[in-house]
Amino acid sequence: MTLTATRRYDGGQLELRFVDGSLYVHGEAVDTEFLKGASWFSADRAVWGGASYDNNSHGLLPRQLEGSPIVQSAMLTASKDVRRIGTDTIEDVPTTHYRGTVTTDGIRAARDAATDEAARERQIGSLDQFYAMRLEDTLTMDLWVGDDNRTKRFRMRSETHAVKGGTVDQQLEIIDGEPLDMTVTFLDVNEPVTVDAPPADDTADLGELADELGTA
Fold this sequence. Notes:
It is a single chain. By secondary structure, this protein is α+β, with helices and mostly antiparallel strands. It has five helices and twelve strands. Strand 1 and strand 2 form a beta hairpin.
């Protein structure tokens, strides 16, 4: 996956690879000096996972990485105001375009109303990721669905907040974050793919680097 980073990361490109449960990141937005000369860094789920892991990356990862695109694409099922916008062709695939707004209250209501365990787990995952990305109360979501009822593209837009402080001597302060505007397009489904991890001697472990920041 390739991301265009926010202005906090100088608007540069980031290349992401997920291999055997680890995330690898490389690109012009990565500070190689901080990585001690390496051009990649790696992170396990304890660093890049959802809200239950409380993001131990010390702000070194963009918030877009906090969660799974598969779970995020299902968030619109918790909306109470979904409407059909029209039709679009995406990557030569005819799709129907829907739009709605999602709130934490809506996700909780969908979770409580779920009639089977799988649907309930989907809403639990949506709520987890809503908090992980530190979204404000309302998320605007667009969803493009193909004739096979699979999500082809989704777009998420919301204001976000950040947390300042948090040490023993500091009180947590909620401050405005950067606006979220993320679009994900699914190019293929269930097609074989090979993703290789970058060379170990060119990769720094983000967990170790974050620990060093915490003890500096």
